[in-house]
Structure prediction request, 270 residues.
Amino acid sequence: MIAMEWKKFLALGTGVGIEIGARELRVVAARVRPSGVSVLGGTVIDGFRERPAAEWGAEYAEFLKRLGVGHVAAAALLPRREVIVRHLLLPGVSDRELGSAIQYQIDSLHPYPEEEARYGWARLRGTESALVGIARRTVIERYAALFGEAGVKVASLTFSAAVLYSALRLLGAPPAEGFLTSVGVDGETELYGEGPARPAFSAVVDSPHERVASLASAELRLAPDRELSALSDILPVPRTAPADHDLSRAALPYAAALAGACPRLALAAN
Prediction:
């Protein structure tokens, strides 16, 4: 585990984060330095599923070129509804044995046919837990082909819990007492939290928001009266950003950009 005082000096790089939505791509480019984060810019590419890939791919390339980061491969976030996120407690399992231990359990963690499941995982540093993301092979192949057709360089297809966990630790530490936050995308809400009972929690909300948030807080063993945190309040605050940058609306691609900028410090859940 990298000591905090040294970790900051490794926080060095430039990243591009893409949030794949139902109809749009939200993109954020950011530069990370030990002294802080500079948001270089952000954009929204509308109608990417219906438009010719070459057309919106050129729009994306022009955006990166304008910022001087055309060479950077992006960290793309799969839609949360298309990813199953699991937290595994694996006491006594070494880093060397972790992959085999997860592979042994993987078939019990999803409902897909064996040949259809693709998964990425990472140990949550300093714990006996691992975070696992599982998606259908066809989903991965569809987005990989789409980005390839558009000429968009992608370094990873990852998921929100992995980049949030990483971004929160890039230049500091998340609230020691734990927290629960919500992210609303395309009409659905994801709850993400960390607490004394679980180092990471992620769930898509189907039932009434308040009831699920209360259950999630109890599972994390947060204080009963603790309110939901705004994601934009717990992520690293940019030192500089364009005047029109709204972190509250672009929190997920921002977190992906931070994780992509410093892959050595981020969870390798690709």
